[in-house]
From TrEMBL:
GO terms for biological process: epigenetic regulation of gene expression. This is histone deacetylase. Its EC number is 3.5.1.98. GO terms for cellular component: nucleus. A divalent metal cation binds at D109, H111. Substrate binds at D36, G82, Y237. InterPro entries: HDAC_I/II, HDACs, His_deacetylse_dom, His_deacetylse_dom_sf, Ureohydrolase_dom_sf. Responsible for the deacetylation of lysine residues on the N-terminal part of the core histones (H2A, H2B, H3 and H4). Histone deacetylation gives a tag for epigenetic repression and plays an important role in transcriptional regulation, cell cycle progression and developmental events. Histone deacetylases act via the formation of large multiprotein complexes. Residues 320-368 are annotated as: Disordered. GO terms for molecular function: histone deacetylase activity, hydrolytic mechanism; metal ion binding. It comes from Populus alba x Populus x berolinensis.
Length: 368
């Protein structure tokens, strides 16, 4: 499903099935393929599917872009990592930097957003803020509060390391305090929000205690800043809760209250026995004491005080955006997938010769 509401200027764009990312397939086959990043048929096409929609924000075709298939924050410049092959978040931020002097990246996945942080570790044009489990050899092993960025990027990498069992109250209070101060200090032109659902209670790989309401409250809070917003998915290994979470958060972004009862559908058996949309938090012990969270908060706020003011940048000539297909979205069925071959047919190269109206040759053999 791919469409915007409405077509022009204001609305929300959802990109579930394809993106516009032009890279060579050979770039995929670098490092770390295998183990948690296995090679499989149509791997390149899979990576194209979770590409971003940042260019639509740049062209003011929407206010919020949603890409639940994206959020693969572990992929590095020369290597796949943690089920992530190509880092769509980095590509999206690079696209947003063409039009915005500063971009804020916020990550609420249970794992540290190491790939995004590494990509922008030496620049002040992107501030990365990651809330994640840290310690006990937890993947990827990075994300200490002392990781601040370097050179021009010093103090522009913010890490909020948490322990097992953090609940809605503790998480949302800390999140709102830090993000409020970050936006006030950094004054971003756009925000990228990674909404990994493995921070929910009961996730097979996660160890947090968040309910869907608590997770969604972070999305609601970021939305209130009324800045161009790119929202992506991320990790999540209890599939029925992933589906619940991102459905609720789509409703939040659309200002739509959804009924708690899940309607009859072909996947209804996965949501037994209560068939409800919301899920409560878990019963895991919260190992994040008030004193620990207070210490982390004070360290982060102290680091932010080292930023005297929002950094400025001299904007140069803006590079061209990714290709935007020329078709009438009003005539597209949002429930039908457009395959890659159909998309490719819509691309017309300017350096080729065609018959008829597109012929570059004049009848006398001369060219313009």
């Amino acid at each position: 499903m791919c469409g915007s509401l409405p077509k022009k200027a204001k609305g929300i764009f959802t990109c579930w099935d394809f993106g516009y990312m032009f890279i060579l397939p050979d770039l995929l086959f670098t490092d770390n393929l295998g183990e948690d990043c296995p090679v499989f048929e149509n791997l390149f096409e899979f990576c194209q599917i979770y590409a971003d929609a940042a260019h639509r924000l740049n062209n003011q075709l929407c206010d919020i872009a949603i890409n639940w298939a994206g959020g693969l924050h572990h992929a590095k410049k020369c290597g796949a990592s943690g089920f992530c092959y190509i880092n769509d978040l980095v590509l999206g931020i690079l696209e947003l930097l063409k039009h915005h002097a500063r971009v804020l990246y916020v990550d609420i996945d249970v794992h540290h957003g190491d790939g995004v942080e590494e990509a922008f570790y030496f620049t002040d044009r992107v501030m990365t803020v990651s809330f994640h489990k840290y310690g006990d050899m937890f993947f990827p092993g990075t994300g200490d509060v002392k990781e601040l960025g370097e050179r021009e990027g010093k103090f522009y990498a913010i890490n909020v390391p948490l322990k097992d069992g953090i609940d809605d109250t503790s998480f949302t209070r800390l999140f709102k305090t830090i993000i409020s101060k970050v936006v006030e200090t950094y004054q971003p032109g756009a925000i990228v929000l990674q909404c990994g659902a493995n921070s929910l209670a009961g996730d097979r790989l996660g160890c947090f205690n968040l309910s869907i309401d608590g997770h969604a409250e972070c999305v609601r809070f970021v939305k209130k800043f009324n800045l161009p917003l790119l929202v992506t998915g991320g990790g999540g290994y209890t599939k029925e809760n992933v589906a619940r979470c991102w459905t609720v958060e789509t409703g939040v972004l659309l200002d739509t209250e959804l009924p708690n009862e899940i309607p009859e559908n072909e996947y209804i058996k996965y949501f037994a026995p209560d068939y409800s949309l919301k899920s409560p938090g878990g019963l895991m012990e919260n190992l994040n004491s008030k004193s620990y969270l207070s210490t982390i908060k004070m360290q982060v706020l102290e680091n932010l005080r080292c930023i005297q003011h929002a950094p400025s940048v001299q904007m140069q000539e803006v590079p061209p955006d990714f290709y935007i297909p020329d078709f009438d979205e009003d005539e597209q069925n949002p429930d039908e997938r457009m395959d890659q071959h159909t998309q490719d047919k819509q691309i017309q190269r300017n350096d080729e010769y065609y018959e008829g109206d597109n012929d570059n040759d004049h009848a006398d053999g001369s060219r313009t």
